[in-house]
Amino acid sequence: MIEIKNLTKTYRGKPALHNVNLSIPRGQIIGLFGENGAGKTTLLKCILNLLHFEGNITLDGEPISHKNIAKISFATSEHSFFPNLNALHHKEFYQEHFPGFSEKRFNGLMDFFNLPKHRPLKAFSTGQKNQFEVILALSQGADYILMDEPFSGNDLFNREDFYKVLLGILEPNETIILSTHLIDEVSGFLDRVILLKDLTVLTDVSVMDMEEQGKTLTEFVKESYHYQKDRVSLALDSISGKEE
């Protein structure tokens, strides 16, 4: 289990997260949602111990360090691979450094996305690079797989098919933490929803509880954020009025 207690992060004196508390067990698919600047990426990077922070984050009771970091993988549109190496060289590198690496899953996902194995990663399109990030994260053998807007640059059909494949390959002990703005697309396979607002946790709810309230994920998010239904018409009226 990942335990986050009183997590606070500042950048040059400017707050980025404030007093975040979460417990994340194995075996869940979690949607991490929030407005731009809510702290989603910062939270994921703190879990990975890529940033200095105040508070505590532990994995199975131990601080996250080089000793247990292999239990966590990360797929990010910022890209963390070696651009001059091809896919097969990356596979060899991961096999050497991660004993739990799944060659079967790697090869299957490479075939699913139809990615070239001998082309340097720097020659991939943006969508292909993001697909490859996801492949590496899912093949590493980690218990916790963090994904930060991993589907940028991918078409709708690729994304829809991938969600189905993801559900089919995950093991019971694997947890996905998915940060995305594509709320409607991912609503059908989440177990839990975490909403960030004002740099802290606004809501942490199971999808089952949400559905028992008779709400869709989009409805729940809009209600939680007090979405202003008439904001578009107000903006149009204001713009039209200025032109007159």
Question: What distinguishing features does this structure have?
Answer:
244 residues; alpha/beta; six-stranded mixed beta sheet; four-stranded antiparallel beta sheet; 26% strand; globular
Discrete helix count: 9
Rg calc: 19 Å
Query: Unreliable stretches, pLDDT < 50, 5 or more residues?
Result: none
C-alpha termini separation: 59 Å
The helix/strand series, from N terminus to C terminus, equals: EEEHEEEHHHEHEHEEHHH
How would you classify the helix and strand content by structural class? alpha/beta
Form type: globular
For the secondary structure, the number of strands is: 10
Kindly state the percentage of residues in helix. Answer: 25-40%
Strand order of the largest sheet: 6-7-8-3-9-10
Q: What does the main sheet amount to?
A: 6 strands, mixed
Mean pLDDT: 89
Tell me what you see in this structure.
The protein is of the alpha/beta class. The chain is built from nine helices and ten strands. The chain has helices spanning 40-47, 87-97, 103-113, 126-139, 156-169, 183-186, 207-212, 217-224, 231-243, and strands at 2-11, 14-24, 29-34, 54-59, 62-63, 72-76, 144-148, 175-179, 192-197, 200-206. A six-stranded mixed sheet has the order 6-7-8-3-9-10, sandwiched between helices. A hairpin with a 2-residue loop joins strand 4 (54-59) and strand 5. The longest helix has 14 residues, at 126-139. The protein is globular. It starts with a strand and ends with a helix. The mean pLDDT is 89.
